[in-house]
Amino acid sequence: MTDRVLVAYGTKFGATAEIAEVIATTLRTAGLEVDAVPARDVRSVERYRAVVLGSAVYMARWRRDALRLLRKHRRELTSRPVWLFSSGPVGEQADQDAAAAQRWTKPKRVERLAAEIEARDHVVFGGRVSDDAGGFMRRSMARNTPPELRDRRDWAAIEAWGQDVAAAIVQGR
Question: Which residue range is the domain that position 139 belongs to?
Answer without folding.
Answer: 4-170
